[in-house]
């Protein structure tokens, strides 16, 4: 793999790994500092996945669809795995909003690059 490809794909791979850790850590390992913090974490995490996925060159539609499916499946798994977590529809919806924001942020960055070229 070339250095350029690693720079493009490395951040996405790192955020995917982070998402697995965050989404599937046991409930006892997930502190709650204040109400609603988990929604901010979900929003930020999925925005980062979408943004870095676009930087990695993944097609927008397939990336967004895949991330929305991942969001839904992660909630289902949180509900059925013996990790002390609950499935929440609002978390999946928050994830979807994060995906949209990440795709939008990637588009804004791309438009700025085009404007400078």
Describe the structure.
It is a single chain. The chain is mainly α and 117 residues long. The chain has one domain (3-22, 32-116). It has four helices and no strands. Helix 1 (3-24) runs antiparallel to helix 2 (37-55). The model has no long low-confidence stretch (mean pLDDT 91).
Q: Major β-sheet, in short?
A: none
Number of strands: 0
- In percent, how helical is the residue content? over 70%
Enumerate how many helices there are, as a single number: 4
Strand proportion, as a percent range, falls in: under 5%
Please indicate the count of domains. Answer: 1
- So what's the overall shape? elongated
Q: Regions with pLDDT < 50 over 5+ consecutive residues?
A: none
Cα-based radius of gyration, to the nearest Å: 15 Å
Chain-wise SSE layout:
Blueprint: H1 3-24, H2 37-55, H3 60-80, H4 89-116
Could you provide a short overview of the structure?
The protein starts with a helix and ends with a helix. It has four helices and no strands. The chain has 117 residues and is an all-alpha fold.
What keywords describe this structure?
mainly alpha; 4 helices; elongated; 117 residues; single chain
């Amino acid at each position: 793999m070339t250095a350029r490809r690693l720079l493009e794909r490395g951040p996405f791979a790192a955020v995917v790994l982070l998402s697995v850790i965050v989404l599937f850590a046991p409930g006892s390992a997930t502190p709650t500092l204040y109400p609603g913090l988990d929604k901010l974490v979900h929003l930020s995490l999925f925005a980062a996945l979408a943004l870095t996925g676009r930087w990695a060159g993944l097609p927008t539609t397939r990336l967004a669809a895949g991330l929305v499916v991942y969001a839904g499946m992660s909630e289902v798994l949180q509900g059925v795995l013996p990790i002390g977590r609950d499935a929440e529809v609002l978390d999946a919806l928050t994830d979807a909003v994060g995906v949209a924001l990440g795709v939008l942020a990637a588009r804004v960055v791309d438009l700025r690059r085009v404007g400078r070229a």
